[in-house]
Amino acid sequence: MSKQYTAEEIRKEVEDKDVRFLRLCFTDINGTEKAVEVPKSQLDKVLNNDIRFDGSSIDGFVRLEESDMVLYPDFSTWTVLPWGDEHGGKIGRLICSVHTTDGKPFAGDPRNNLKRVIGQMKEAGFDTFDIGFEMEFHLFKLDEDGNWTTDVPDHASYFDMTSDDEGARCRREIVETLEGMGFEVEAAHHEVGDGQQEIDFRFDDALTTADRCQTFKMVTRQIARKHGLFATFMAKPVEGQAGNGMHNNMSLFKGKRNVFYDENGEFHLSDTALYFLNGILEHARAITAIGNPTVNSYKRLIPGFEAPVYIAWAAKNRSPLVRIPSAGEINTRLEMRSADPTANPYLLLAACLTAGLNGIKEQKMPMKPVEENIFEMTEEERAEHGIKPLPTTLHNAVKAFKNDDLIKSALGDHLTHSFIESKELEWSKYSQSVSDWERQRYMNW
Fold first, then answer.
1. Residue 198 annotated to the active site
2. If DSSP codes are grouped into helix, strand and coil, which group holds residue 134?
3. Annotated binding residues, as ranges?
4. Fewer CB under 10 Å: which end of the chain, C or N?
């Protein structure tokens, strides 16, 4: 859990650390972090929930006639950013929930929505939904004008010891910066693709981890630019190479007891874990729209690059959607391997938790685990195992989402409407675009 700051502690740090500006962050429907920045003279208004902004220009928020929004900072997210601005002094950051002018939590705020679903979890008798994300990203070189290129700083591969290249130096500084901001980084290494990196930080409760996901992206981009590099979390930035995943490790707790663990269960999984797992599998196609929310996401979900394509689960096998890593009692978890880092973490966790809680409520056992390589099976063999495919396009994933009332309820009416509208517009624009591949393929026909 994050440190709980008081208003007085924040005031003291503002003075002691020469904080000149306050950055108030929140997240839109697409998972993009937005911010309002105010001078330190406005500190009292910040701490008293009195900073307003126009929500009509934020994707998925509100119509023009009801646009006034108020930011309620979560004091536990307070941090002084480890870099200053060009005018000197430090910047203090607070992650905020968005409220209406009458003080009610705004239903179109993804963070508020996750808190709502966590409330449903607690009503069901559970205390904590613990999450560990494994975050992958690519580093590319910047050109002389500061724009991104597709030139990579290295051609290393998985776990290579690239101690002297700029990518490795950048990765190490990202880790040091995160640790200085209170993260417990568990691992950092080169991934399979050229210029591809992975940094894993310790699991925590769902809201804290979603907040840290947004902080992680901000820090990674900032430090990369310092090294003359561009960090991207795009799902598949390079054709023919591995894409970026965001594996989602999930466990459920009552007090300090991990209810997914059973010493005598297969893979040490309890019935509760298996019910939760079945909920994830039954609603996987709709969850895919949220966990893989871009046109580009589906160029990662293809055979041959370790990303899952089929709805199944297993222990050691890495081809299914959900894997059960070997772990002790506290760390027993379900690892959903399909999501990528373009996902809005607040929406993704709300959808997964809703599906899992519904699975617990229904008490249905999942399909049998599949330890064979699913990619090498014939279509008939997959049918015999009851293995169904994930959606292969954003269009099909959104159709699955529209047909799944439970996952729509995980977002609520406002976010569901905004999400469908945003994704259908994205698909429409993509469908009208003409690529270099098409010109090369069809120009002489």
1. yes
2. strand
3. 134, 136, 186, 191, 198, 201-203, 247, 300, 306, 318, 335, 337
4. C
